[in-house]
Amino acid sequence: MAAMESSRAFDPWDPAFPADPYPAYEELRARGRVHYYEPTNQWLVPHHADVSALLRDRRLGRTYQHRFTHEDFGRTAPPPEHEPFHVLNDHGMLDLEPPDHTRIRRLVSKAFTPRTVERLKPYVEGLAGELVDRLVEAGGGDLLTDVAEPLPVSVIAEMLGVPDSERAPLRPWSADICGMYELNPSEDAARRAVRASEEFTEYLRGLIEARRKEPADDLISGLIAAHDEGDRLTEQEMISTCVLLLNAGHEATVNATVNGWWTLFRHPGQLAALRSDHALIPTAVEELMRYDTPLQLFERWVLDDIEIDGTTIPRGAEIAMLFGSANRDAEVFGNPETLDLSRTENPHISFSAGIHYCIGAPLARLELAASMTALLTKAPGLRLAAEPVRKPNFVIRGLEGLPVAL
To answer: Long-range pairs for 332-335 at CB < 8 Å and ≥24 separation?
Structure first.
């Protein structure tokens, strides 16, 4: 068994760690396939093959409450004051298991189709172009607030049918809710998440009521109408789905955009190759998501005992799958520490795998390619204006901003 001392390099609360966790991951992979980490009472899994297999293993779950009570599972129920967050979170696809997950994902898929995403393509590309035009007119700015954030937030808001005048709180609500996904979140983070959950829920309840009375050509109307053999989404399931689509649908895209450009600025040879050949954009998007993964860690509960490399992980334990480490595993990726925008064999797991594979992956790819194309075309001399500051967050990893000049 790889004991906790083997994971001494893993320290998510050391500011230097989120800045560059990859040397620690390399050490973890070299030391073994599984490591117990006492500060979070989790088992860390750093290898691609194990992470990929565990994402598909039905002995693990995003929840355990479909099979066990908190007490049966040896866990403590969340405090009552956190209930608004958990009601919102626990009714979304990401934190459900079959049969509820199967039913909700099937119904959501009826509204969130590839054709829906394809229909958005002109809007996404047009908006990306407008945002970059403004950046160019200003002679530069913050790539995060000027392009990376407004693009996916506007796209999800457009899909859901949120009017322009009501979109301002969406990003702050999302950021506060996502604070609860960090390791051992503080009580202050929990309070902000609860408040955002209450406000976002109340807003969506009103929007759903309006769409029931007067349907429109938007995703909320589609979720209201979606049915299958008598099954429909409950109002709470619709609310949780909308919040999940906003949170998952833009947090990763925002961070993939700024992490990606920060990576490109530090690899001028690769950036030059991309500027001279825009046909590299599809593989560049995949490689940048592999090289600096926006979601570094994904958790699962152990519902039935499993064994990894001779170590039994008992029912009731929690596994932390290290996506960022898996995406740098030399057993899967040739020269994994090298950024190669032409890499074609790229089975990264940045969008997860199995039944919880990201339903919004096609939309994320569309948005990332659209913003990259617009920046390469309209701002060919884009350069770093100042060293960016990295957020202290580890799980959802990004920058405070990315100052750029032309």
So the answer is: 332/48, 332/49, 333/48, 333/290
Which residues of 88-193 form beta strands (DSSP E)?
A: 140-142
Question: Could you tell me the residue range of the domain that residue 87 belongs to?
Answer: 4-405
CATH number, residue 264: 1.10.630.10
For residue 101, count CB atoms less than 10 angstroms from its CB and return exposed for 0-12, middle for 13-18, buried for 19 or more: buried
Query: What's the number of domains the chain is made of?
Result: 1
Written as tens digits, the pLDDT of the chain (406 aa) is: 444 444 457 999 988 898 899 999 999 999 999 999 999 999 999 999 999 999 999 999 999 999 999 999 999 999 999 999 999 999 999 899 999 999 999 988 887 788 888 889 999 999 999 999 999 999 999 999 999 999 999 999 999 999 999 999 999 999 999 999 998 999 999 999 999 999 999 999 999 999 999 999 999 999 999 887 778 899 999 999 999 988 887 888 999 999 999 999 999 999 999 999 999 999 999 999 999 999 999 999 999 999 999 999 999 999 999 999 999 999 999 999 999 999 999 999 999 999 999 998 999 999 999 999 999 999 999 999 999 999 988 999 999 999 999 9
Supply the pTM of this predicted model: 0.93
